[in-house]
Amino acid sequence: MKTEEFLQILKQHQDKSLLFEYAPNLLVGANYHITEIKHITVDSVDCGAGVDAWKETIVQLWEDPNELGKTTFMSALKAMGILNKVGTIKSYIMDAELKIEYSNANFHTAQLFVNDYEVRGKNILMKLTSQATDCKAKEACGIQVSEVEEMAGCAPGSGCC
């Protein structure tokens, strides 16, 4: 999801609570805070000497241990207030990929993609997912990938990953 789409969704649903699902059926606690917004420029060279660059917006979430019993999630309106304030200090690149950075005692720190979202009653549920690392220069590196494996999409157990 791009930064612009995320901001538009929040704006359209300001009256709803904002929930994040970091793994199937596992939600970031209601005690979360938006603690940092990162405007990242990635400038990379892959193992085949291919050069690439792109922008990312990373929204960091943190669960406050002093609010463990909290049951009311942050509203989209409050999240918009935080994001808008950041935008007045440091402008967003609207077509930048949006990632959510999160961890807890049982989940390692990760930058997760917003794979999808759902409006469920009075909630907006942002569905997060990780993305496996991959060799971007398979051909240049001599890595053979059969047509069957390519069609399988490198699914776990498919033999190509």
Q: What keywords describe this structure?
A:
40% strand; 2 domains; 7 strands; 161 residues; 21% helix; globular; seven-stranded mixed beta sheet; alpha/beta; 4 helices
Please give the share of residues in helix.
Answer: 10-25%
Order of helices and strands: HEEEEHEEEHH
Beta-sheet strand percentage? Answer: 35-45%
Distance between the termini: 25 Å
**Largest sheet entry:** 7 strands, mixed
Low-confidence stretches: none
Radius of gyration: 18 Å
Arithmetic mean of pLDDT: 91
Shape: globular
Strand order of the largest sheet: 2-1-7-6-5-4-3
- Tell me the domain tally: 2
Number of helices: 4
Structural class: alpha/beta
Explained architecture:
A hairpin with a 2-residue loop joins strand 6 (107-120) and strand 7 (123-129). The longest helix has 14 residues, at 76-89. The protein is 21% helix and 40% strand. It has 4 helices and 7 strands. It has 161 residues and is α/β, with parallel strands linked by helices. The protein has 2 domains: 3-130, no CATH class; 132-161, no CATH class.
What is this structure, in a nutshell?
This protein is an alpha/beta fold. It folds into 2 domains: 3-130, no CATH class; 132-161, no CATH class. It has 4 helices and 7 strands, in the order H-E-E-E-E-H-E-E-E-H-H.
Draw up the topology in text.
Blueprint: H1 3-12, E1 17-23, E2 26-27, E3 32-45, E4 51-63, H2 76-89, E5 97-104, E6 107-120, E7 123-129, H3 138-141, H4 147-152
Parallel strand pairs: 1-7, 4-5
Antiparallel strand pairs: 1-2, 3-4, 5-6, 6-7
